[in-house]
Amino acid sequence: MSLLPYRDNVGAVLFGPAGLVLVARRADLPNAEGAAGGWQLPQGGMDAGEDPAVAVFRELEEEIGTAKAEILAEHPRWLTYDLPPELVGKALGGKYRGQRQKWFALRFTGSDSDIRLDRDPHPEFDAWRWAPLAELPALAVAFKRAIYEDLAREFARFAR
């Protein structure tokens, strides 16, 4: 077990048309069209002392170019994952063993044209789409799959 701490992080399950959720393809994995881990939910690190509900809107703005959303629910627990041993000391700046995440379900209040991955000079994502919530676990890398399974259960009521 690593002695490194967890990095505090927020994540967004952004519900759009017909109860589908926004997933985005990682720009560093452009050939991973159907591979687990190629597509993920918007998420990102929190600043020291930052309120998670504030951080989730900041992360949406940074990662997908818009924060046009309203919070539907906050996951009742912080969820954690550990990086696989080969990534510890390399991923997340080499400073963390994994992440401690606060997840939110949000309703998208904008239109598809508001989603602009090109607003960041170094975008994390290069494509996005609307996907069924139940598809989330199959999209996740193995070490994040349990979190995506939890999110699919916890926020299922918003997918109707």
How many structural domains are formed by the residues? 1
Q: Kindly identify the CATH topology.
A: Nucleoside Triphosphate Pyrophosphohydrolase
Overall CATH class: Alpha Beta
Q: Work out the helicity level.
A: 10-25%
Distance between the termini: 40 Å
Rounded average pLDDT? 92
Strand content: 25-35%
Number of strands: 8
Identify the overall geometry.
Answer: globular
Task: Please tally the helical runs, counting DSSP H or I stretches of 4 or more residues.
Answer: 3
Which consecutive residue ranges, at least 5 long each, have pLDDT under 50?
none
Order of helices and strands: EEEEHEEEEHH
**CATH level-four homologous superfamily name:** Nucleoside Triphosphate Pyrophosphohydrolase
Radius of gyration from the CA trace? 15 Å
Secondary structural class: alpha+beta
Task: Give the biggest sheet.
Answer: 5 strands, mixed
Q: Mind telling me which CATH architecture this is?
A: Alpha-Beta Complex
